[in-house]
Design brief:
The chain has 302 residues and is α/β, with parallel strands linked by helices. Helices cover 30% and strands 17% of the residues. A 7-stranded mixed sheet has the order 5-8-9-4-3-11-12, sandwiched between helices. A two-stranded parallel ribbon has the order 1-2. The longest helix is centred in the middle third of the chain and has 17 residues. The radius of gyration is 23 Å and the shape is globular. It starts with 12 loop residues before the first helix and ends in a 25-residue tail after the last helix.
Length: 302
Amino acid sequence: IPKGVVNVVNGFHEPGEALVNHKDVRLISFTGSTDTGRIIAEQCARSNKIASLEMGGKNAIIIMDDADIDNAVEGSLWGAFGTSGQRCTASSRLVVHKKVYKKFTEKLVERVKKLKVGSGLDAKTDVGPVINQQGIDKILSYIEIGKREDKATLACGGNALTKGDYKKGFFIEPTVFIDASRNMRISQEEIFGPVTTVIPFNDLNEAIEIVNDVKYGLSSAIYTQDVNQAFYAMQELYTGICYINSATIGAEVHLPFGGTKATGNGHREAGTQVLDIFSEWKSIYVDYSGKLQKAQIDSVEI
């Protein structure tokens, strides 16, 4: 990459605000919270800047009664707790058919309890640290909301790890809430940490309603062996990304990436569509005839 093409400026809101408002900056591509993204969009609109926004997510995996349960459990683990759940595509909701609910939750909780929390530099670590103490505080506050306000069942986890080597970083136990409902705060709000919520459902239409019943629309997934159910879910799930028999993560690298509703503003990152954001279209007309060509509003007799 040639010198000067990529520049990194560290800081809080001051450098961001300066870039957004600078007359020589034509485009802002932002990844962050929905509230901050809306402020950026408003500021960009005043100077007619292009704004590409990738914001919050509350992603869900549907596990149907015909799913490969072991595969769905492993996918849910990776989706919910990979990168400590601190990514916008994390599988923070697991929507499980009542016929397999008990079997799935038992297997999931058993596997979660065996996950190793530790340094991200240790190859044996399954779940690394979260970003800082502020992140810990937010995650713990939502765990308390889940227990006291939402009254969901805390199946495992729920505590910060502070003893021994854990003193050197910001660690929290992988946490699973079960017997939740769609309207609970832990089912609606982005927690951004190693916390996932399990919600039961009766049929596919109800599951799709649950998945769509949040303000975000980034990523969704379904585990099923029925191709008809898979394609129906692809059609009805209102998210920018949809996975079949995989978690809500992983396809971002090679495909247009972004979401609907409060997650994005219609643009997509990655894939070929990103070229439409970071470049301008120019339409060119060349006349090789050497004489006037009348078109559009002009009328000619042939």
